Request: fold
Amino acid sequence: MTSLEDKFEESKRLGLQIVKESEEDRLMTLSIGPQHPGSGHFRFTIKVDGDYIVYCDPDPGYVHRGEEKMSEYRNFIQNIPHLERPVIHDSTNITYAYSLAVEELVGIEVPRRGQYIRAIASELNRQVYTLYWLAIYGIFLGHSTMFMWPTGDRELFIDLLEALTGARVTHAFNIPGGVRNDTPDGFKDRCIRQVRYFEKRLKEYEDIFYNNPLFRQRTEQVGVLTKEDAIKLGVAGSVLRASGIPYDIRKAEPYDIYNEIDFKVQYMKTGDSFARSYVPFLDMKESCHIIEQLLDKMPQSGEVRAKLQPNPKGPPGEAYRRVESGRGALGYHIISDGTPKPYRVKISVGSFRNMLALPFLLVGQKLADMPSVYWSLNYWPVEADR
Amino acid sequence: MATYTKNFRFGEFVGSLIWLILWILIIIALVGLPLIFIVLFYVPLPPVNGQVLTPYLFLTMTVDPSRTLPIIKYMIHTDLFRITTFPGFTYAALIAAVTIFIERKFLAKMQLRVGPLYAGKIEGILQLIADGLKLIAKEIIVPSGADKPLFWAAPIAFVAAAAAVVALIPAAPTWVAANVDVGLLAVFAILGFFPLIALLFSWASNSKYPFIGGLRALHQMIAFEIPFILSALSVVILSGTLNLTGIVNSQITSYWFIFFAPISAFVFYISSLAELERIPFDLPEAESEIVAGWLTETSGMIYGLLQLGSYVKTYALAALFVILFLGGWAGPAVMPVELIPGYTGVQIYNHTTADAILWFTLKVFGVIMLMLLPRGISPRIRIDILLHTGWYKLIVLAFINIFVALALIYGGILGPGGLLVR
Reply:
């Protein structure tokens, strides 16, 4: 009897075209995106061995807009409308950090009422973002009710922001020096009413989605990111907090009036997909308390915006300020050379850092876990590409 | 929001209607009538009331109501009527259409939406027709590397297999297209075709996502076939027959089997959800993972046929649930004995059959609503959990009820001369 190797050699000597099956032949390469329903404006190729993912290669950059370069050709005020484009449904937060950095560069003091309105707007916008994220998470797991409910309840906050800023999605509300305009009449009562209603709805979300045994089965112990790995990979926001690190910029480096607000940093210790999906939900609950506190403590009257020159400019220097956005720490590093236009703007976003954890978490998972791991990373492709 | 044309003129609308009617009349006169005559000359017409029908006589009967009834009565007792219309395909397709409408509105209410609203003015009642016309109008795209005969054959085979199940379902006493002694076995035999069709179609599509979807369909349907059959087995033990009409009759003489075999009913319900690929078991069509699963390369009416087939299958399995566990057409008599009091002509109306159809349809819709419910409240299950559920939990549960059924039979409670048999 000859061995398999000998047979192979024999066949080669006879001139037969026999090719040995390699390990690679078992694998099937799947392209997830950019036209795949579960990808967004993003592509990653995965290789599956049966039902298991053995390789993952993220390929971002489909929606690169050159926001950083565009910022160098506009002055500090003109930059606001285009800088919010990367995350249009979290537009107040992405311009918040920019405004803080510019204020530090130019040397402006924001009036206290302006600071409060800013914080209210950014908390409302965080809810809008998280609801949108939750809706997509629901439909990723095939739970269509969880797609419709947050999408519908998102209107509560969109209506509030529309009353406050005049625009439904892209508000351009935070500007260096404060906010664009004061609150409309009766805003406080309306805001409190809608937030209280939303708190009731959150209980229903928990009943239908988070306490659903099938959802628990699908997400618990899936894609576990340990505390050490989370620190090594440098993930941000809810992904970091889900791995057991209670780190929130609002608490760690309080900006504006956040040091006067009493709130807890929500975190979980398991670091699996369930924790990553549950922490934003806990954040939404906490955000409701923050909004109520802010509305109580807000000064009843006063300026909302500091007076500025038409083309504000400061001495040459740099500033780095960051805020807690819906996806984690969002920082702006602005270098000014003394002219009204920034010399360099660098946007550091949580999305990109969270995306780096994707290949680390996906390898070894089942194909069916791909959506739940991918979207639980709280990743927004457009923001990562900037 | 609905948009209406701004310069709508009533006169033009009426004018266009009159033109439409005129053209319809012309086409009927020039094409329709000759066609009907050609057909009638070649179809052997039955003798009714001792009168041999000529095509001319047949047409006069269609306009005279008193002479129409005998021919209708003759027609509804033919096999053709049973296969095509009443317990057969048209009835099933109608129920499927109503199911789609109910599903949309029901799910919309659950999700705080309104659902289809504009087509047909009243709650979007014509939305299905609009969607059907859209699908017919769309181009059918066949992938370039596809195995064309299989690709075209699979959707038709899918609908045909679904309709074959329907043919075995009795909707009222004696109203069944194929009254087979091993009816239940035949149903399972036909249901065994579906994974094969899904796999063949996904293979023929020559694409990765359909292939994965087809394999998933195969895994899922095989894993759930066995609990499915075992759960029906306890009903067979209780009734002592495989004939579906016999199963219903044995429930009429005792009580509904859901009281004796509740675990089997539960297993049957879960397995039929898996057979139908409905949420939470829609893995073969999991959108966020594998695009649209084995339906990825379908387009136009191929997709429409597969959807029609799956809804006809929904009806078939709901009807099977009703027959096995909910007593089929059994129910209190509510229809009037005479539809027109004092009428002594040819009787088409039969109040027992009308009762049976009413109760059967109501029960089927109840079960269908139960099958639609998980779509609103449940996420998709994962394949390893699914296989574990199918192979371990459901089979064990089904076996428990089989032993219960055996105990009931040998304990003399059910079966011939049992305590609970009336």
Remarks:
- The domain at 57-385 of chain A is CATH 1.10.645.10 (Cytochrome-c3 Hydrogenase; chain B).
